[in-house]
Amino acid sequence: MIDSVIFDMDGVIFDSERIVCDLWIDFAKENNMQGMDELILKCIGINERATEKLFLETYGEDCPYDEYKKVIGERYRTLCGGGKLPKKTGVDELLCFLKEKGIKTALASSTNVKTVTNQLRDAGILDYFDVVIGGDMVTKSKPDPEIFLEAAEKLGVDPTLSYIIEDSFNGIKAAHAAGAKPLMVPDIIQPDEEITKLCHKIFVNLHEVRAFFASILN
Question: φ, ψ for residue 46 (rounded to 5)?
Answer without folding.
Answer: -110, 165
